[in-house]
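anyone seen this seq b4? input:
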Amino acid sequence: MKKIYSKLTENSFQLLAMMAGALVFALLFWSFTGNQNTTEKLLGFSTNYDKQEVTITVVTTGCTVKSDFNIKVSGTNITVVRKKRDMCKMMPDAVSFTYTMKEAGMDANKAYTVKNKFVANPNLANIP
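predicted toks r here
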């Protein structure tokens, strides 16, 4: 009986150790691949009715490009989402990207609410 109990305890410990290792690996993988599709903190958001354009101003640390963002429109709400994290190590700086209203999925004759948080200091944008 003691051998059976000892074997069960040993197997349980091995299973628990494997599960903990898998969890650590998953968390590390998630942290290194970056938070995909996260709501971006904006430095600015503006529209130009005459040109039918919308411009977002965001923080870059050297590798941010226009295609890293998606402008999601749901009814009268707009959310700017970052699809790819900027993993470069430069000092934070502001960068602007311009999209046509059509690219953004917006109607120039409609009122919208931007759901993103805004920050004035680029150094604070990457702080949760």
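Helices lie at 2-33, 101-104. The chain has two helices and seven strands. kinda curious what u guys think
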